[in-house]
Design goal:
This protein has ten helices and eight strands. By secondary structure, it is α/β, with parallel strands linked by helices. It has two domains: 208 residues, Rossmann fold (3-Layer(aba) Sandwich); 56 residues, no CATH class. Strands 1, 2, 3, 4, 5, 6, 7 and 8 form an eight-stranded mixed β-sheet that branches. β1, α4 and β2 form a beta-alpha-beta unit. The longest helix has 14 residues. It is globular, with a radius of gyration of 19 Å. 43% of the residues are buried.
Length: 272
């Protein structure tokens, strides 16, 4: 696959998340609230802190962080998903949260102006994740905290390649998932000291995983992703831990769903 330039990648991300704004938004805000609270605790979010949630999507982190900080800005490239985020904030009566259109690789904040910068499940959509981490560090005051939640791939290059191939079949806006060792190098290069890392496994069903990305059985993207996932079942070649689920008695003759696992890293770091 020929790599896209930055503008093409931004357009692709905007298109994908415009198409899935409602279904993805509902999933992320509801199912990831606990993860957002966990990250808020890891970066010790407090009432005097000013913060930004990069590539905020439907407000996955920002809506929860607003309960802990003085104010927070949610920044995203996709107008449709920002509309949804604003509606949720308005319906919940959150007054210290605002949303803005912007690029996570070029933050509209002055140097040393923020206390906290966070992002969730965004770096694998960004062509140059090292730029985003560097921008987070630039905008932070000394002692400010960075918080990241994202999937990661095994250190083995072959397993990482298959993992990324499955992700790209599911979502064409996926660029590349990092390995844990790469996260460490990028944080260090940006002058950030990692203070806590936690790993969490998220059991998923393949059909729902594809549904959140906008695909259903019968779609070409669904079929391609499923075939590749099935090929990894015998030896767990991509580290998704896939296995066939029990057949659904309500759908006789249909192939069973696939139980799988998404593994995420929660990383908290401090600007030194």
């Amino acid at each position: 696959m020929t790599p896209l330039n930055d503008r093409q990648q931004r357009d692709l991300v905007r298109d994908r998340f415009t198409r899935t704004a409602e279904v993805f938004g509902s999933f992320a805000v509801q199912d990831r609230a606990r993860e957002a609270e966990r990250l808020a605790a890891m970066v010790t979010a407090g009432p005097n802190d000013s913060a930004v949630d990069l590539a905020c999507g439907p407000g996955t982190l920002a809506l929860r962080f607003a309960r802990h900080v003085k104010w927070i800005c949610g920044l995203d490239l996709t107008p449709a998903i920002l509309v949804r985020a604003r509606e949720t904030a308005r319906s919940e009566g959150i007054a210290n949260l605002f949303f803005a259109f912007g690029d996570a690789q070029s933050l509209p904040f002055a140097d040393n102006s923020l206390d906290i910068a966070v992002t969730s499940y965004s770096l694998h959509h960004i062509p140059h994740p090292e730029r985003t981490i560097a921008e987070m560090a630039r905008a932070l005051k000394r002692g400010g905290r960075v918080g990241v939640i994202d999937i990661f791939v095994p250190e083995d290059p072959q397993a990482a390649e298959i993992n990324n191939r499955i992700e790209r079949h599911r979502d064409p806006s996926h660029t590349r998932t990092l390995a844990q060792s790469e996260f460490k190098k990028i944080f260090a290069a940006s002058g950030l000291r990692i203070i806590a890392t936690e790993i969490e496994e998220h059991p998923r069903m393949f059909d729902h995983w594809l549904h959140v990305a906008g695909w259903h059985r019968g779609d070409a993207a669904y079929n391609e992703a499923r075939l590749l996932m099935e090929s990894t079942i015998p030896n767990d070649a991509a580290n998704f831990h896939p296995r066939y689920a029990a057949p659904d008695p309500a759908k006789p003759g249909e192939p069973p769903d696939i139980a799988m696992v998404n593994t995420s890293a929660f990383i908290a770091a401090e600007k030194i």
